Please model this.
Amino acid sequence: MSEIRVGNSEFSVGDSDFLLDGRPVRLLSGALHYFRVHEEHWGHRLAMLRAMGLNCVETYVPWNLHEPRPGEFREVGQLGRFLDAAREAGLWAIVRPGPYICAEWENGGLPHWVTGQLRTRDERFLEPVERWFRRLLGEVVPRQIDRGGPVIMVQIENEYGSYGTDQVYLRRLADLVRAEGVTVPLFTTDGPEDHMLTGGSIPGLLATATFGSRGREAFDVLRRHRPTGPLMCMEWWCGWFTYWGGEQAARDAEDAARSLREILECGASVNLYMAHGGTNFAGWSGANRGGGTLHDGPLHPDVTSYDYDAPIDEYGRPTEKFWRLREVLAEYADGPLPDVPPAPAALGEAVPARLTAWAPLEDVLESRGGPSVEAPMPPTFEELDVDRGLVRYSVEIPGPREPYPLLARGLRDLAVVYVDGERAGVLTEDEPQLKEPVAGPARVELWVESLGRANYGPRLGEPKGITGGVLHERAFVHGVRARGLRVDALDDIEGVPFRELPEEGAPGLYRGTFEVRGAGDALLKLPGWTRGFVWVNGFNLGRYWSVGPQDELYVPGPVLREGANDLWVLELQEAAGDLSRGTSALPPGAPSLRPVSR
Model:
């Protein structure tokens, strides 16, 4: 297989091929997102890419993960460490920094606080983009191939032709990247359709395509727009994503192998999307909207797993698809492929959790929530600085009044409603009105949860919360009190006032422990629980939801430790039955860990 060259190597775009120091090379790349894989597993997953027959790794960069608030940067160095790991693994690297990335990621990677006309030349948008790129590119520039690093190409925007036509915006991004010291080739990526390629590509930059099948037809379209230059499918969709309440995505391994062979027989380079998907830890899953070409219909939130039916599954195991694609890729290798590396250790034995304490949602909000706000109309999540999490809206229905319908107009996305302290129902976008009317006077609380911001389409950046007001008999109820709770506020639960477990499965924050012998990769199951988030030793595993199809959460082995391990479960609707039994027996709804099978 081709090894990366270090020290003053030049990677360039020729008339028909990619060139390394003037020698034609074919890129056999695989997508692996550093932010969806525990850092201690990067080396194993990159070695799996090599063993499959790939010579390059591609990663997006999620802006909102690294700049949660304006000017507040977090762990930007992760990208640099990942690129160093790619170099050590013998892989070239393609970086796709956006600023928009899609990726089935919350808001397509754009921070919730960004304003202005998204993805345009609007200075209210471009000013924070420029600040972000100047910070981010410091991790990329010194790791370019002409400086001894693995980075061979950098993408400008992402599938922009599916969204807009602002060529000035694209050129501004390209000029900014060049001004910050990026010297490797730049490229754009779009679907193989005329309107996408004309909207998303710009002169002087390599244009690449995204598709899942019918490679010859796709490259014919690309050639009409770019008669010269290397052919590359920058996203070959060898699998697909899954959303809550939907069917588990799957693609036949032999069908995938035939499609990959067609691409390579065209003489093209390819990037497998995804080679290894990983996990949407910490509630970063995005969402898509159905409803035809406008993507303007019902919200379909993505599950926590980003397995993607990839050839390397969520837990790092080779699948049947891995072996079929490896057979195809081996035909294009310079020599024998590396052996498949041994899998990371799995948990030694299944263990149940023992829940020991509980805090009601009101107490969690009081101790870890943001400031309380009162306004005539409900403020949005964005106005309350909530990216992932929930907001409690409180209103007073005046009285005396007869029972009338109560409606949360413009609800995004889901609300558990309490009337005078008693749960009255669950509202959704599709069913925003309580089934039973409400008489006044009454105190109404609506605990609204964001299930993930849209990551694709014209509704990118839409606000969350109650966006159209609370109505009682078609009249607005004014004077709304609101308070938000960010999911990341519970990465530390110091100060939360816990009490004994409730007799029934009340919502709230549950605390407990696992006793682990033989720490390693594991799966967490929560039988009978409804919807919420889980932390193990302060690491947020992501969202669980009883609607399926995902019914277990992945626990990376490095998160666990020998002996006692802390467990926190934030249940937002209804926990599993009676969890208050004494120490002599574990209730049937107790969370449990089991080993990942190897």
Observations:
- Residues 379 and 452 are 18 Å apart (CA to CA).
